[in-house]
Design goal:
heterotrimer; A mainly alpha; B alpha/beta; C mainly alpha; A: mainly alpha; 12 helices; 78% helix; B: alpha/beta; Rossmann fold; Alpha-Beta Plaits; 6-stranded mixed beta sheet; 4-stranded antiparallel beta sheet; 13 strands; 31% strand; globular
Chain lengths: 254, 322, 261
C-alpha cells in the first residue's frame, strides 16, 4: 500500500506536469498575489512581512491546485475511464485517491521556489530562512495536510452536481480564513476557531515560522495531527462513495 | 470448486426523471442467469449490445452490486468480499479509455503494478515480459495518447496480466479493432488459455466466440437463450441447409413468394454493400434451388451458394426468437 | 429596425446556449460566491496594509467582476458559435456585424452587472459601506461603460481564439493581471511607470477611477473626462475586435480553416 501511495504521487505529478502550458499558467498566480501584497505592504517597511507574503501566496496556490484538482478528481478519473480500475485494485481506495490530491499540493510546492525567486529578484524580499531544517520538514507536512483536506473534498464534492464550480468557490474563503495573505488579526474574532480546522492555516504557519525563526515544530505537529483526522473522515466518505457507485453502477460512463 | 459460480443473478436499474412529475424507469439488465466456469476454461458470453454481458462482468469483477442472486469467484463473493476477489482477477475492457494518456506505457504499467501489489523484485521483469507478449516492444516509452486503438487494447491486456491473476475477465477485447489487430489479440487470448488461465470473455462477434470459446452462453435481453459448446449450438441448427442468393434490390412481394415455396422454413434478407443476400433456410437435403430461382425469374441474380449453418445462423435464430 | 431585431433575437439565442452551461449549481458558487469573497479578501488586505479604504477595494473588485464576466462571456459567445458551426453562417449574413455581436454581448454585459451588483450589495453589508441611492445610480452608468469596454476586449480575445488554441489560458492570464494592473487593488501611484502605461490602455482603469470619484461625492459631469476616455478605449477595442474577426474570417475562408478547430 505504501508503494502504491508513492507510485501514485509520482504518476499524478507526471500527468500534471507533462503539459508546459498548465505549469506556466499555474506559476503566474502566486506571483500576481505576492506582487499586489508587496506594493500594498511596501510602506510598512517590514521585510518580514514581504517574506510572509511570498510564502503566503505560494500556499494560496497550493490550496487552489488541491481544491480545484480534488473537487473534480473522481469525476475526472471516471471520464478518463480509470476510476473502475482504481476501485478494482486490491489496495484500499483511499490509498489510491490520496495520491491524486497530494500530487496537486506537490506541484504547488514548486511554486514556493518560483515565488521566493520572484520576490528576491524584483522586490528585494530577503531570502533568509532562519531554520532551514524545520523549513524543509514544514513543506511536505504542509503538502500532506492540504492534500488530505483535499481528499475529503474529493470524496464529498463528487456528490455535488457541479463539483468543479464548488472547488473554484472555495479558494478565497479558505485563503481568508487560514490567514494566508491577510493575517487573522484583521479578521473578526470568530474566524480564529474556524481557522484551527483548516490545513492551510497550520501548513502556512509552519513554513512561515521556520523561515522567520520562531517556533515551527508545534505547527508541523498540528499538520500531522490534522492529516490523520482528515484521513479518517475521508476514508469513511470514500467508502460511502464506493458503495453507492457500486450499487448504482456509476463507476464508469454509460 | 468451479472458478466462477453464478446463480440466479439479477440486476435492475432504476432511474428517476423530472422534478415535478416523477417518472421512474426500471431496466432489468439481468433477469436471473446461472452458469459455472471451470478452472482453465475459456467461457464466452455472446450477445448483442445491451444484452447484459458487461453487466455480468462488472458484477463478477466487484464493480457493480447485483440486485439479487449469488456469485462466487474463486470461492469468494464479489459483492461482500470484494477485496479478496480484486487481487486475484484481471479485468480488461475494450475501448479508448482507461489509461493515463499523457504517460508512457511503461509508466502506466509501473503504476498498475504497484497498485496490484506486484512484488518489487519481479516488477521490471514482468513488465518487460508482458510488453513483449502483447507486441509493444519498441513503443513502450511513447505516450499512450499516440497509440492506435489496437495498441491501447494490447496495453490493457498487459495491464490485466501484471499480477498474474488466475482469472481474466475480457469485456469485448477486440471491439473497434482492424482485422489484423483483432486477430493478433485473439491469438494472444488463445495462448493465455493454453497457459492454463481461466478466461471469461464477452463478445458480439460470432466467429470470435466460435474460434476461442470452449463453452459459451448466448445472452439476449438479460437472460440466457442457450448454453453449450459451439458445436452444441450449431447442432441446434444442424438440421438445416442455408441457400444464399445474391440479389440486387428484390421487391418485398418476391421475398414473400420465396417464403411460400414448399420446404422453406425461413427467409431473411441481409444488405451487403450494394447487393442483398437472401438467406433461405430449409430442412437438410431439400433441393429447393430450382424452385427458388423460378420465383426469382426476371430479377438479377448473382452468386448462389448452398451451405451448412454456421454459429452465426444459430445465433441469429436464438437471439431473434428471444 | 432590422439591426435591432438582430440585436435582440441574437442575444436571446446566445443566452440560452449560455444557460446550458450556467446552471444555478454553477452560478451561485462561481458567479456570486467567488466575487464576494474576492472583494472581502482584498478589503481585509487593505485594512492590514493600512492602504485606502474598504470602499476603494469594494469598487475596484466589483468592477473587476463585471469585466471578467463580460470578457469571458463574449469570448465564449464567439467560441460557442464556432463550436456549434454557426460562425460561418453568421459571418456570411448581411446583418451588420456590429449589431450581431453586440447582440451576443448583451447577455454577458447584463450578467456582469447583475453579478457585480449582487456582490457589491452583499459586501457593502458585511463591510459596512453605505452609499446614497443617487451615487448608486451613477455607478450603474459607469458600470455600463466599463462593461462595454471589457466586452470589447472579450471580442478581441474571442477573435484571437479563432486562430489559436490556448487563448482561454491567455484570457485567464489577462483577467488575473487586471487584478494588479487596473488599479483595482493597488493605487495607481504605487505602481511603477511601465505598469501605469499599460493601465491607461486597458478598459476598466478609467472606469474604476471615475467610480471611486463618484463614491467620493463627485458628479458624473465632474468625472466625464474619465468616462469619455473609458468609452473611447472600449470603442478602440471594439473596432480592433471586429477587424480581427474580419481578418481571421477572410483568412479562414482563404485557407478553409475556419471550422477546422
Amino acid at each position: 500500500m505504501i508503494r502504491a501511495f508513492f507510485s501514485g504521487i509520482r504518476i499524478h505529478v507526471l500527468q500534471f506536469t507533462k503539459n508546459p502550458f498548465d505549469v506556466s499558467g499555474v506559476l503566474l498566480w502566486p506571483i500576481l498575489y505576492a506582487s499586489i501584497a508587496y506594493y500594498l505592504l511596501d510602506a510598512k517597511n517590514d521585510p518580514s512581512l514581504l517574506l510572509s507574503a511570498s510564502l503566503g501566496a505560494a500556499v494560496m496556490l497550493m490550496w487552489s491546485l488541491v481544491v480545484i484538482g480534488s473537487s473534480g478528481a473522481l469525476e475526472h478519473q471516471r471520464w478518463q475511464g480509470t476510476l473502475e480500475l482504481l476501485v478494482a485494485a486490491p489496495v484500499p481506495f483511499a490509498a489510491v485517491i490520496a495520491p491524486i490530491t497530494i500530487a496537486s499540493g506537490v506541484v504547488g510546492a514548486y511554486a514556493l521556489l518560483a515565488t521566493l525567486a520572484w520576490g528576491t529578484l524584483f522586490f528585494e524580499v530577503p531570502l533568509a530562512i532562519e531554520q532551514p531544517l524545520a523549513f524543509v520538514v514544514a513543506i511536505p507536512a504542509c503538502v500532506l495536510a492540504i492534500g488530505m483536506l483535499g481528499l475529503i473534498m474529493a470524496a464529498t464534492f463528487v456528490f455535488y452536481r457541479a463539483a468543479f464550480a464548488l472547488g473554484i468557490a472555495m479558494q478565497y474563503p479558505v485563503w481568508i480564513a487560514a490567514g494566508l495573505l491577510v493575517p487573522l488579526s484583521v479578521l473578526p474574532d470568530w474566524v480564529g476557531p474556524v481557522s484551527w480546522f483548516l490545513a492551510p492555516t497550520w501548513g502556512f504557519r509552519a513554513i512561515q515560522e521556520a523561515a522567520l525563526g520562531r517556533t515551527p515544530w508545534p505547527d508541523i505537529a498540528m499538520c500531522l495531527l490534522l492529516s490523520a483526522i482528515y484521513l479518517v473522515a475521508a476514508t469513511a466518505c470514500l467508502r460511502g462513495f464506493e458503495r453507492l457507485a457500486r450499487r448504482n453502477g456509476t463507476l464508469q460512463l454509460t | 470448486m468451479a472458478a466462477i459460480e453464478v446463480e440466479e443473478l439479477t440486476r435492475t436499474y432504476r432511474s428517476r426523471k423530472g422534478v415535478f412529475r416523477r417518472t421512474t424507469t426500471v431496466v432489468e439488465a439481468l433477469k436471473g442467469i446461472s452458469f459455472e466456469v471451470e478452472r482453465g476454461e475459456l467461457f464466452g458470453l455472446l450477445g448483442p449490445n445491451g444484452a447484459g454481458k458487461t453487466t455480468t462482468i462488472k458484477i463478477l469483477t466487484t464493480l457493480l452490486l447485483p440486485s439479487s442472486g449469488s456469485a462466487r469467484v474463486l470461492g469468494f463473493d464479489p459483492a461482500r468480499e470484494a477485496q479478496k476477489v480484486r487481487g486475484r482477477i484481471g479485468y480488461v475492457f475494450g475501448g479508448e479509455r482507461g489509461l493515463y494518456d499523457r504517460l508512457s506505457a511503461i509508466h502506466n504499467l509501473q503504476y498498475f503494478a504497484d497498485l496490484y501489489r506486484v512484488p518489487s523484485a519481479d516488477k521490471r521483469r514482468r513488465i518487460a515480459e508482458l510488453v513483449e507478449l502483447v507486441g509493444l516492444t519498441g513503443r513502450e516509452r511513447e505516450r499512450v495518447e499516440t497509440y492506435s486503438r489496437g495498441m491501447r487494447q494490447r496495453l490493457h491486456i498487459a495491464r490485466g496480466l501484471l499480477h498474474d491473476p488466475e482469472i481474466l475477465f475480457l469485456d469485448e477485447p477486440t471491439i473497434g479493432l482492424d482485422p489484423i489487430g483483432a486477430r493478433e489479440i485473439r491469438e494472444t487470448i488463445a495462448g493465455l488459455r493454453q497457459a492454463g488461465k481461466t478466461i471469461l470473455l464477452t463478445t458480439h462477434y460470432m466467429f470470435e466466440a466460435d474460434a476461442l470459446c470452449g463453452r459459451l452462453a448466448v445472452i439476449a435481453g438479460g437472460a440466457f437463450v442457450a448454453t453449450g459448446t459451439p458445436a452444441d449450438l450449431k447442432a441446434a441448427v444442424a438440421d438445416r441447409t442455408i441457400v444464399e442468393i445474391e440479389t440486387f434490390g428484390v421487391p418485398e412481394a418476391t421475398i414473400d413468394r420465396l417464403r411460400s415455396v414448399v420446404g422453406v422454413t425461413r427467409v431473411a434478407v441481409e444488405a451487403r454493400d450494394q447487393a442483398q443476400v437472401v438467406l433461405v433456410q430449409s430442412a437438410t437435403g431439400a433441393e429447393l434451388v430450382p424452385s427458388l430461382l423460378r420465383e426469382l425469374e426476371g430479377s438479377a441474380v448473382g452468386k448462389v451458394v448452398t451451405r451448412e449453418p454456421t454459429l452465426e445462423d444459430a445465433y441469429v435464430e436464438l437471439v431473434g426468437s428471444a | 429596425m432590422n439591426a435591432l431585431r438582430v440585436l435582440f433575437v441574437g442575444g436571446v439565442t446566445s443566452y440560452r446556449a449560455l444557460f446550458n452551461w450556467i446552471s444555478p449549481w454553477v452560478f451561485f458558487p462561481h458567479m456570486i460566491g467567488y466575487p464576494v469573497f474576492e472583494i472581502l479578501f482584498f478589503a481585509y488586505l487593505g485594512r492590514f496594509a493600512g492602504v485606502e479604504s474598504d470602499e476603494f477595494f469594494l469598487i475596484g473588485n466589483a468592477f473587476l467582476a463585471i469585466a471578467v464576466t463580460g470578457m469571458f462571456g463574449m469570448g465564449h459567445a464567439v467560441a460557442g458559435e464556432r463550436r456549434s458551426q454557426t460562425l460561418t453562417a453568421l459571418l456570411a449574413s448581411p446583418a451588420s456585424r456590429l449589431a450581431l455581436f453586440l447582440g451576443r454581448a448583451l447577455p454577458s454585459i447584463l450578467t456582469g452587472i447583475v453579478v457585480a451588483a449582487m456582490s457589491f450589495a452583499i459586501c457593502s453589508l458585511i463591510l459596512g459601506v453605505r452609499l446614497p441611492a443617487t451615487t448608486l445610480a451613477a455607478l450603474v452608468v459607469v458600470a455600463l461603460i466599463s462593461s462595454f469596454g471589457a466586452t470589447a476586449l472579450g471580442l478581441c480575445l474571442g477573435s484571437l481564439g479563432l486562430r489559436g488554441r490556448n487563448v482561454s489560458l491567455f484570457a485567464d492570464v489577462i483577467a488575473g493581471s487586471m487584478l494588479l494592473v487596473s488599479g483595482a487593488n493597488v493605487p495607481l501611484d504605487r505602481l511603477p511607470g511601465w505598469i501605469r502605461a499599460i493601465s491607461s490602455g486597458i478598459p476598466l482603469t478609467h472606469g474604476i477611477q471615475a467610480a471611486r470619484g463618484i463614491a467620493d461625492g463627485r458628479t458624473i459631469g465632474e468625472v466625464s473626462d474619465l468616462l469619455l476616455t473609458e468609452a473611447g478605449i472600449g470603442a478602440v477595442y471594439l473596432i480592433v475586435g471586429i477587424g480581427l474577426l474580419r481578418l481571421f474570417e477572410f483568412e479562414g475562408r482563404r485557407s478553409a480553416t475556419l471550422e477546422a478547430f
